[in-house]
Amino acid sequence: MTQLEEFEPLKNDLILRTAWGQDVERTPIWIMRQAGRYLPEYHEAKGKRDFFECCRDPEVSSTLTLQPIERFEGLLDAAIIFSDILVIPQAMGMIVEMVDKLGPHFPNPLKSPDDGQYEQVMQKRVDVAAELDYVYKAITMTRKKLKGRVPLIGFCGAPWTLLCYMVEGGGTKIFKESKKWIYLYPDAAKALLQKISEVCVEHLALQVKAGAQMIQVFDSWAGELSPSTYKYFSEPYLAYISKHLPPKLKEMGLDPVPMIVFAKGANQSLDSICNLGYEVVGLDWLVDPAEAVKIRGDRPIVFQGNADPGILYGSHASITETVEHMVKGFHGDGKKGWIGNLGHGVTPFMKPDDLKFYLSEVKRLSEA
């Protein structure tokens, strides 16, 4: 018996059918960062561990992944493994810490192609299976605990977004170092992006082997590039992942899984993003659903998104109005190609009951 055969059959495959372009009875929904700080039970389970300790403990990661599934029983159509996009730079030999109230921090970011560390990162043979074994253990454990209730999503950061973190040393508002790399050291930047892409493919494949049934690539800093630079420093590497993951899975004796790309802020490039080879394209809240459908045309792309997360700070009436606008925009042409989500992740201080209402409204209004 293979590992995948050990898992219970899916009772709810709505999101997978939608992602493959099939007609469905209603819009499936899941939420980015649906497991996290806004849930009181998250803080109880996390205890005094820091963020990356939680990621590296399969039992804790699994517990956190399941919390929203259990709290919002019957309203979420997928779980997403509790992990982080920065596990890949860690696997590539860089130190990443999570600093309280500040976020991720690289004590020694990449400064230039001649800083010594760049060469070490480029020359390192990354044993992804060994370095990130804790992620795969968490996925297998979670898949078993789900008992087929909903599918499990795995993920990675996009090469461009990971490069930004690796050279900036953390979050930033001006992207000075990232822009320096692409405009001062473009060849070295592209070589690093290619190396990251190869690690991403391996990481995603091993997540599927461990039990992930769908994957998402997060290009969180896509909006920092102009349309022309996006074509040089992000799109080729997103395309590399979508092109190489399916044959990699086949080589491992695994079936293909639906692939989602979420390029936050890159709506000016939506037309070309729809040609990158992903079944699903995630949208942020800065693009109108009907306009996105028009840009998509007759291409068999499923959209995911895209309510402003800020509506969860507002009234229930404003939540209903937003969902009605999405349903009309995404389903206005009679197509079913839409997975409900927010235009980015849940943020702190949101009330779980308001998220519950949002989930309920997507379900109610998309069934009508």
TrEMBL record:
<keyword id="KW-0627">Porphyrin biosynthesis</keyword>
<dbReference type="InterPro" id="IPR006361">
    <property type="entry name" value="Uroporphyrinogen_deCO2ase_HemE"/>
</dbReference>
<dbReference type="GO" id="GO:0005829">
    <property type="term" value="C:cytosol"/>
</dbReference>
<keyword id="KW-0210">Decarboxylase</keyword>
<comment type="similarity">
    <text>Belongs to the uroporphyrinogen decarboxylase family.</text>
</comment>
<dbReference type="InterPro" id="IPR038071">
    <property type="entry name" value="UROD/MetE-like_sf"/>
</dbReference>
<comment type="pathway">
    <text>Porphyrin-containing compound metabolism; protoporphyrin-IX biosynthesis; coproporphyrinogen-III from 5-aminolevulinate: step 4/4.</text>
</comment>
<feature type="domain" description="Uroporphyrinogen decarboxylase (URO-D)">
    <location>
        <begin position="28"/>
        <end position="37"/>
    </location>
</feature>
<protein>
    <recommendedName>
        <fullName>Uroporphyrinogen decarboxylase</fullName>
        <ecNumber>4.1.1.37</ecNumber>
    </recommendedName>
</protein>
<keyword id="KW-0456">Lyase</keyword>
<dbReference type="InterPro" id="IPR000257">
    <property type="entry name" value="Uroporphyrinogen_deCOase"/>
</dbReference>
<dbReference type="GO" id="GO:0004853">
    <property type="term" value="F:uroporphyrinogen decarboxylase activity"/>
</dbReference>
<comment type="function">
    <text>Catalyzes the sequential decarboxylation of four acetate groups of uroporphyrinogen-III (octacarboxyporphyrin) to yield coproporphyrinogen-III (tetracarboxyporphyrin) with the formation of intermediate hepta-, hexa- and penta-carboxylate porphyrinogens in the heme biosynthesis pathway. Acts on a number of porphyrinogens, but only coproporphyrinogen III can ultimately be converted to heme.</text>
</comment>
<keyword id="KW-0350">Heme biosynthesis</keyword>
<keyword id="KW-0963">Cytoplasm</keyword>
<dbReference type="Pfam" id="PF01208">
    <property type="entry name" value="URO-D"/>
</dbReference>
<feature type="domain" description="Uroporphyrinogen decarboxylase (URO-D)">
    <location>
        <begin position="153"/>
        <end position="169"/>
    </location>
</feature>
<dbReference type="GO" id="GO:0006782">
    <property type="term" value="P:protoporphyrinogen IX biosynthetic process"/>
</dbReference>
